[in-house]
Amino acid sequence: MKNKPLVYLAFIILVLGAGLLIGASNIPDEWYRSLAKPAFNPPDWVFAPVWSLLYAIIGLVGARTWLTLRRSMAMRLWFAQLVFNFAWSPAFFGLRDPASAMIIILGLLVSVAAFIAVSWRQDRTAALLFVPYLAWVAFAAALNAAILLLN
């Protein structure tokens, strides 16, 4: 395919751009700062660079999957994780609803793990690229659960 670089660029720009826009629209405020947080809660400045890198990886994996497995379960799972991912910040910060956000992040965790499992044989590189994402989402889910329990 001649337009491969454009597909990669489009996926990365769209995912990174949407992720950053959602993040900028749901910035932690006084409500969040007033919540009790666990000892393992990282400083706020950590989240933007981590998510920026992860969004670039998510876009890269999305493009790989689109180019090779467009009509596959892997592609459907990729879109599912993106929906859960983009829904979490508005639920947690926008609605100030850690319980709903917990349900969303569990859906995200399952969809990322399922993507890795489904992609493993067809595109091991894409599956491996999602492993750090899975680890971060698992950490974020533990953080969400701890905030839910402490408040």
From TrEMBL:
Protein keywords: Membrane, Transmembrane, Transmembrane helix
Localization per record: Membrane
GO biological process: tetrapyrrole metabolic process
Any Pfam family matching the protein: TspO_MBR
Record flagged with keyword DNA repair: no
Main location: membrane
Gene3D superfamilies in alphabetical order: TspO/MBR protein
InterPro entries for the chain: TspO/MBR-related_sf, TspO_MBR
Superkingdom to which the source organism belongs: Bacteria
Entry's transmembrane regions: 7-25, 45-63, 75-93, 99-120, 127-150
Cellular-component GO terms for this entry: membrane
Membrane topology, from the record: Multi-pass membrane protein
Family: Belongs to the TspO/BZRP family.
Protein name, UniProt field: TspO/MBR related protein
Taxonomic source organism: Shinella granuli
Organism taxonomic ancestry: Bacteria, Pseudomonadati, Pseudomonadota, Alphaproteobacteria, Hyphomicrobiales
